[in-house]
Amino acid sequence: MVKQGNDSLSDDEKNCNLFSPPTSPIFQAQLLELRTQNYQLSDDLRKSTAELNNVRQKTSNLEKEYLKAQKEVDALLSENEMLQGKLHSQEDDFRLQNSTLMQELSKLCSQIEQLEKENRGLKEGKEVPLASTPSSSTVDGELLRLQAENAVLQKNMTGESVRLQGEKEALYNDSRTKIDEILQKKEEELKSLNIRIQKLQGDLMLANQSIAEQKEHLQSQQKEHEMALHALKEQIQTVKTQEMNLLRDQNVALSVELQQRQTEQESLLAQKDDLSSQLQEASRANSRLLEQLTELGQEKEKVQQELEETRKTADKRKAMLDELAIEVAQEKSRHKEELSDVRLQHEKEILSVRARYEKELRGLHEDKNRTEEEIRSQLRDEKARTRELEGLQQTVEELQAQIQSMEGTKGWYERRLKEAEETVEKNTLEHQEHIQKLQQDHDAQLKVNPASLHMPTHTHTQQTPISEAHLNLDFSRLTLSA
């Protein structure tokens, strides 16, 4: 399982390093130069677009002012036409009044002529009746009155005609001067607007020309950048091939080291089997000692039965039994010390194997985390490069696929670690249940054999470490297999 994890990790590192950027100073200098040129060109293009927008804004403002001036000129022309219409209407009214006055004057003149004819006829007549004198006097008075009225009317008519003519000329002159001033002012404004429009059109043409030149310059620089990028891609490909070869060599070295570790693990497993066999032999020796102890107990009972017959023989046998008990106790203590030493050594070996396994597992996790961090940093670099050069989209997609595969590998490691923890917990529970079962069996044996109360206590103290050591061996074997 560790071998599979190392193989998958080495494959992921290999695939990740395929897309890692080369760290040569020449490539970095060329990339920095291309970035500075790209920034300068983008700044120039931004400035040109800003100037073009300003020129367009000025042109639109001038067009708005021109339209406003045109509207003012149209309003002044319409006002001039309205004043001319008023002048024509006043002239028509004056003509109408003049014609009416002339008609009345002609009527008065005809009446005056008729009266003069009648007067002359009356003066030339020989006979004038008396009754006609008051009528002639009234006619003369009427004639004088009419003549006076005619004179007044003629005077009023001439004054009115003079006044109307003066007002007409004054209005005409005022309107003409105002119209001339307005037209002159608008012509000057139109001339200035035309000059400004021509100037802005020239500026716009120059700006368009400069923009076209900058576009050509940018296109040429873009072609140069594409050529440089192509060359850099070739350099990257060569560096990638070199790194691939280096990674293959490293993979071979790691596989050799993994095989060595596997052989070491196999040797440790063999040592563990030897220790388990030694423990089994010790347990068998302990069982033989227990049999001997039971036999001694039986002999002790026989000696107690014959104690009344021969105390001296019993005392001697008791002394022999005491010596034998001392020897047995010494043998038990020595055997217990050997078992404790074996157990301590076995626990040390188990702890060392477990520490080594945990160290390797932590190393794998650290390598995985470091690889993930490198991949994330490389992904950030690749994203920045795609924003700047806009040409390595496929590489970014492949890196994202690599990250997804690494996340899958991470999930696989986490699942395996969780399974191993569950296996350890399960084995611990089984171990505790097995110990409880052994204790129950031992208690049952104590209840069945009450006569041997003194001796099974030592057997219990000896059997329990053996069973615990055996269970610890089984637990370590399960841990290593997990």
From TrEMBL:
Q: Which UniProt keywords apply?
A: Coiled coil
- Judging by the UniProt lineage, the source's domain of life is Eukaryota
Keyword Coiled coil assigned to the entry: answer is: yes
Coiled coil region boundaries: 45-125, 176-320, 354-437
Q: Where is this region: Disordered?
A: 1-20
Q: Where are the transmembrane segments?
A: none
User: GO biological process annotations for this chain's record?
Assistant: neurotransmitter receptor transport, endosome to postsynaptic membrane; regulation of modification of synaptic structure; regulation of neurotransmitter receptor transport, endosome to postsynaptic membrane; regulation of recycling endosome localization within postsynapse
- InterPro entries reported in the protein's UniProt record: GRIPAP1 (IPR026204)
Instruction: Give me the Gene Ontology terms describing cellular component.
Output: extrinsic component of postsynaptic early endosome membrane; glutamatergic synapse; postsynaptic recycling endosome
Q: What is this protein called?
A: GRIP1 associated protein 1
> Source species, please?
Scleropages formosus (Asian bonytongue)
Organism lineage: Eukaryota, Metazoa, Chordata, Craniata, Vertebrata
Gene assigned in the entry = GRIPAP1
